[in-house]
Amino acid sequence: MSANSPQPIGSTTLASEQSAQQAVYLPPSDLSKKYNKGIHLPTPTSAAPHPSASVPGSTKIKTIENFYVRPRWLFVRIETEGGVVGWGEGTLEGHTEAVQGSLKDVARRLIGWDAMNIEEIYTYLYRHRFYRGGEVLMSAMSGVDIALWDIKGKVLGVPVWELLGGKIRERCDVYGWVGGDRPSDVVEQAKVRKAQGFTRVKMNATESIGWLDSPHALDDTVKRLAEVKAIGIDAGLDFHGRVHKGMAKQLAAALEPHRPLFIEEPLLPGHVNELKDLYNKTTIPIALGERLFTRLDCRPYFEAGCIDIIQPDIAHAGGISETKKIAIMAEAYDIGVAPHCPLGPLAFAASLHIGFSTPNFVVCEMSWKMHYNTGGFDLFTYMTNPDVFKVEGGSVGLLTTPGLGIELDEDLIRREAAEAEKLEPWINPLFRGDDGMIREW
Ligand SMILES: [Mg+2]
Fold it and tell me: Record's CDD domains (predicted)?
């Protein structure tokens, strides 16, 4: 399969390709029957450790490179002295050059460190460097961290979830996007998503909206949710931090009878007390977290009891290491984890490994055919094994090969990065109100 002709998720053309795995992997509908009979599904056979694993010094970091590729992703490639290559993703949408600057600094300092000591490298980058946290430094660290987990899995011959405590589920629920920055045609798109195998979608709740807008500005939002749900699919609504408090409480009340899956960023991060007020006014689950970095950022929201779902973005929050810790911390507050992931294949694979190994995982975002993937670039463009992300019954199956479990076309990535370097990196659109005032994206 060509890297530029992604497998149409939802089709059945992969059945024959997957037949060899049928002894181990069952269709989603059969899983519960098997489990309910008390039959334990066998763990996939792990590969042998990489030949370099027993060679002293072979796991030392030899090179760290980064590649900006369209539509808007930043990949990190780390190679060890033993020739093991790990890939990570530190995409920070609209701030590519800032993360690349941080990665340049990081790359210089980590040559010669043992790639297997992920926690030590994390501690060095986070703790030793005095200034810490925030979206730029943490996205760079995330890209490095994800690549290190990929290396560790490949060196030991096991999938990343095996290193995170083993699998707790065979499949991870996912959702796709409908509508764009300014939601429209969502019903037709939701029908397409359903045909593609999704059972859940997410859409923006509103277009850009004034601080105090007409109550009628919310009517279309309610109508869209009702219409999407009428086709038999669940929908989360992303307020995107666009809706201020006075409008958010009206919108939550209007949506409540139609039972959205969740409302996301109903207020901007930082408004912990105001979120708590909203939380107490609605029965709709409240999700937030794509703009929080590390456990420390999440802590006030957990302690205030103002969210039901934490949405760490694995490419920003601190990679696999920190996202796993956020998830464990959230469980103590009865908060579910829904990794935010409108990004590339590496961030998506890394998020799934959290899902396969984490009890309070609920659902993961999937960027396949989302509105930001333009110009012919999409989730599978750089993959040579896109079938591993096949959606069935609203979920994606276990990733089974060592490391992250995805294979990339490195030549294509290098060629595309050389082209993309000549272009201005992706930046988010600018919205203004009728008075000219800049509004939230
Ligand atoms: Mg969002």
Answer: D-galactonate_dehydratase (cd03325)
